[in-house]
Amino acid sequence: MERHTADNKGFIGGRIAFGCMSLDPAAGDHTALIGQAIDGGITLFDTADLYNRGENETMLGKALGSRRQEILIATKVGNQLNPDGESWTWNPRRDYILRAADESLRRLGTDYIDLYQLHGGTIDDPIEEVIDAFHTLQQQGKIRYYGISSIRPNVIRRFAALSAISTVMMQYSLLDSRPEEDCFHLLSAKNIGVLARGTVAGGLLAGKTPRPYLCHSTDTVATAAAAISDLALAIQTSPASIAIAFALANKAVSTAVVGIRHEQQLKDALCAADILLTPQDCAKIEKGISRCAYAEHR
Question: Reduced to 3 states, what is the DSSP secondary structure of residue 161?
Fold first, then answer.
């Protein structure tokens, strides 16, 4: 397959992105919180057509209002709503991606999407169709950049080799070092940005009761959380801020996508953007934490 050579590199979303998945449109108006995020320097807002059956996109578009030109919108595609209105079916076909983009544009109330991402993906997907769909949307001016959201090394390698993706969104934290195995090296070599999600490991690095996580035992999770908390106490910040800053300390990571649903989480994210951990800080935090590896999709 011929590799598209459109100038997709250079997407810059800032150190912190506002993850909108946690925002429930039924829980009220989030305009003030989103406004505070913009005022605090956050420029990238990430959503998906999957979240709340598209209502999350609608909520974000309305909340941004006249501030659309100040920010970047990222959304995702690939999960097609079934006729029952509740369940979803994976659909990476070209025609569906083109239709879904128009629907996302309508819900977001905008005429272009800054970053359009394939929301998952398998090695068996028709990648040529996916890339062609994204390329067509670029030519039409409906999207500026495209990427994928995936933790599957085989899928990431294939897109990195055949497409002009700008970004890969993947889970990464002190408790999930799997991307360090080979994905980070590959993406850095190709100048593909990493959007790290799950940086607080579902809250386990930010105060939640320890429990087993990936390859880690409850004791290991407790050790990791304690190391994060000790450093947070030493520099008078929150454990969540340190956990996010740890992910950002890896040179392969361009942006941490932080799920935000209230002011304290926003504060933690904004503080993390200003924390520059040294290699010594990171080594101290990592001491005694074993490395996990991808068990599937290698």
Answer: helix
